[in-house]
Design goal:
36 strands; five-stranded antiparallel beta sheet; globular; six-stranded mixed beta sheet; mainly beta; 2 helices; 2% helix
């Protein structure tokens, strides 16, 4: 692993929270400064010297301030995206504004969504996915209608001029009479052909039959079929789907993976993680080619639960979120699942001046390797213990929407307003090359050479962290590589902020107290 850095960035109190992308000669990044101010930073690609930094102010809509949501680079065209609620019409709008090469926002906005909602507190949220070639943007809006016992979800696909290519809207009515009823939009995806996919999971307990009923569906909208809705059912019994992540492959298939739990004799799900499942959808036929359930093996359970609990057959606590899916060279999959949770403390202060302590934790990573047929090849665990605390005036839980029986799934997403304050040092950067999985993360210097999860020490002060590299070969055997010697005042990589330029090159952001730099991380053969 080789890291090269550019020039030191100006000490302007603006912390980079996202590296948006790179064009032929420029790197674009989003920075945050206190008081909810976001800046677009533009850098020269070669030297990584900052060219400009401009405050992002999206033009008002109907004389209302627009809240910043995201910024995207679509085929070298930059867009700032923001949302605004219209109280009179009870609509939640999403707008896009083009940004010039110099970082100046256009005075014109494009209305992307004009969604009717129940009220402001039930306005829901927007979720984004960019296409693999960077030329299209998929956006989903979800919101609840409590009086109707319903949820509405709307999906739209936009081209690089923010013109709508596809739109679909659906309203689902809840049946609260059913026991343990849950409706989840588990994931949504966009493939290289600009086809759109949604995973819907509806579950409840039939107390009369003593069965757990699972409605597990893929909604498919193919460009070649003029985006007509197609539905694929995945049939299963005796298990409950906990979550689901999708990945479209180069072989015109759709891979679904996630955790599942066992079900008791009375039909009630145990909710703890029994293992990992895999289902493949052949997009040429819309058929489910396989459905495999892989229980966690004993060795993995020992590392996660300890030998005593593993011997008793205990299941894994549902604290692990799937963070990364990797398509292997042989057509199999590698799944990275990280232990993640957020602790929100009691607020102190009065009204809008109240401060809330929030602690983010990201600990060990379960590495699961599946064969092309979906069965288990090997599994292992990356030992790490990391946490970072933030004090915020307004806390928004960044783990998708959740309202009673309705959930939008997803890993913990740290709000942009809390990045730049510590949580971005947590997590890991995965790189898969030549059949070898590499995982880079920040660790306690005292953990040098240690791979036993029982022996590791917590990260502690992330400002004093050192980067470490775990390498997994095609059999799951791990090799740890640490710096030969710790360099005083060495820059610390922020794994929460990076841009994957190619298979073995990433643009990264690193810091040491007031010193910030952009860099490039290369993985050597």
């Amino acid at each position: 692993m080789t890291v090269t850095y550019g020039e030191e960035l100006p000490d302007d109190k603006q912390k980079i929270v996202k590296i948006i992308g790179e064009s032929a000669t420029k790197i674009y990044a989003l920075a945050f400064k206190e008081k909810d101010d976001y800046y677009l930073k533009i850098f020269e690609s070669k030297s990584m010297k900052m060219i400009s930094s401009n405050l992002i102010v999206i033009p008002q809509v109907s004389d209302r301030e627009v809240d910043f949501e995201e910024v995207y680079l679509l085929n070298d065209k930059l867009y700032a995206i923001g949302s605004v609620y219209n109280k009179k019409d009870k609509t939640f709008n999403l707008v896009g504004t083009e940004i010039s090469e110099k970082g100046v926002l256009s005075k014109n906005t494009v209305v992307l969504f004009n969604s009717v909602v129940a009220k402001k507190t039930e306005r829901g949220g927007f979720y984004f996915k960019q296409s693999q070639d960077g030329g299209a943007l998929l956006i989903m809006h979800t919101s609840s209608f409590p009086k109707e016992d319903a949820v509405k979800y709307e999906v739209k696909l936009f081209d690089d001029k923010l013109a709508t290519l596809f739109s679909s809207e659906e309203k689902v009515i809840f049946d609260d009479d059913k026991k343990d009823f849950e409706f989840t939009i588990a994931d949504f995806e966009l493939n290289f052909q600009d086809d759109v996919f949604l995973v819907i999971n509806e579950s409840y307990r039939d107390s009369k039959k003593k069965e757990q009923i699972e409605k597990f569906q893929i909604h498919i909208f193919k460009k070649a079929n003029k985006y007509a809705k197609e539905v694929v059912d995945i049939n299963l019994k005796g298990k409950e789907i906990i979550n689901c992540k999708m990945m479209s492959t180069n072989k015109n298939s759709l891979q679904l993976v996630g955790f599942y739990s066992s079900v008791r004799e009375n039909g009630k799900a145990n909710k703890e993680l029994k293992g990992v499942y895999n289902a493949s959808i052949n997009l040429a036929t819309n058929k489910n080619d396989n459905l495999k359930f892989n229980e966690f093996d004993y060795e993995t359970k020992v590392k996660i639960l300890g030998e005593r609990r593993a011997k008793k057959g205990k299941d894994v606590k549902p604290l692990y979120n799937i963070t990364t899916l990797i398509e292997k060279n042989d057509g199999g999959l590698i799944i990275l699942s990280e232990l993640q949770f957020v602790y929100v403390g009691a607020s102190s202060g009065i009204g809008p001046l109240a401060f809330t302590p929030v602690t983010y934790t990201k600990n060990e990573i379960i590495v699961t390797c599946l064969k092309p047929d979906g069965s288990l090849d090997w599994s292992n665990v990356v030992p790490k213990e990391q946490s970072a605390a933030v004090t915020t005036m307004s806390f928004v839980f960044g783990m998708g929407a959740s309202n009673g029986s309705f959930t939008v799934g997803g890993s913990i997403a740290i709000p942009l307003a809390q990045m730049g304050k510590g949580p971005e040092y947590l997590g890991a950067i995965p790189v898969y090359k030549n059949g070898v999985l590499n995982i880079v993360f920040n660790d306690n210097v005292k953990n040098k050479g240690i791979t036993d999860i029982e022996e590791i020490k917590a990260l502690g002060n992330y400002n004093n962290a050192v980067p470490t590299l775990f390498k997994f070969d095609d059999k799951g055997k791990v090799t740890r590589k640490d710096p030969e010697e710790v360099v005083k005042n060495e820059l610390v990589i922020r794994p929460g902020v990076y841009f994957r330029k190619s298979e073995n090159e990433l643009i990264i952001y690193a810091s040491r107290k007031q010193q910030d730099k952009l860099g490039r991380l290369f993985l050597e053969d």
